């Protein structure tokens, strides 16, 4: 049975603000007795499992226009915090211009859940499987708080405790894109469990890789999730602007910056010698949280193996 708020014997009172400022003021007034909600899929799971307290008040954000939908603008994708995962999954423009995010969303839960679950909810959980993809794409979060609207890099927010900004409401997730990702040039090979490649010319390519490993596809927390973004000069076999992010289970995802630098500086980043170094680096740098289903060491090994396997696929692709 769900836990209840101390002194509660009834279900929460549901508030339905019509604009973002109203939602924020409600939260400031109600304090810790209220939580924001939209799709509610994660919250419902936590309440049923007894891992979170059923609050006295729910602030339903689903009617706030500013939080709905998404827009593909000239330099970025702007996603409202209440945008359903399914909407992003189905859009061919998002799939082409933002393949990491599209692939991550495709691997979250079942279709019926994706119709309700929102990207904002997946983000604010701090462990959502969209986060490695968003980290690799260097996403930015837009919050409404006591100082008005403020932008914050996703990476910085994940690294902080967040307690000093209690009560803020997530408004948007913004993801920058390069012009070459949206003008239709080149060829996009969207193959399951394979690198997402955009061949810009005979000399260069954009590499986007997302991979999730779980005990049962889509329905349980991942053992490990990995996202890679890089530019590749395939004539020289060099990688540049490498971004690698990893997560899984109850682990807060993070960038593997030392491993990124290793790949950028190595003379042969797709060679066998580098693969061994990358595996050691990832094992050393990734610090997952273990549980009864998958130990810390097993999660480390999973992510390190995924990374080396995807690099090997790139080697075969451009050999």
UniProtKB/TrEMBL annotation:
Pfam families for the chain: CO_deh_flav_C, FAD_binding_5
SMART domains to which the protein is assigned, alphabetical: CO_deh_flav_C
Residue stretches making up the FAD-binding PCMH-type domain: 7-180
Stored InterPro entries: CO_DH_flav_C (IPR005107), CO_DH_flav_C_dom_sf (IPR036683), Diverse_Substr_Oxidored (IPR051312), FAD-bd_PCMH (IPR016166), FAD-bd_PCMH-like_sf (IPR036318), FAD-bd_PCMH_sub2 (IPR016169), Mopterin_DH_FAD-bd (IPR002346)
GO MF assignments: FAD binding; oxidoreductase activity
Alphabetically ordered keywords of this record: FAD, Flavoprotein, Oxidoreductase
Keyword Flavoprotein applies: yes
PANTHER family in the record: XANTHINE DEHYDROGENASE SUBUNIT C-RELATED
The protein's name: Carbon-monoxide dehydrogenase medium subunit
Organism field: Paenibacillus methanolicus
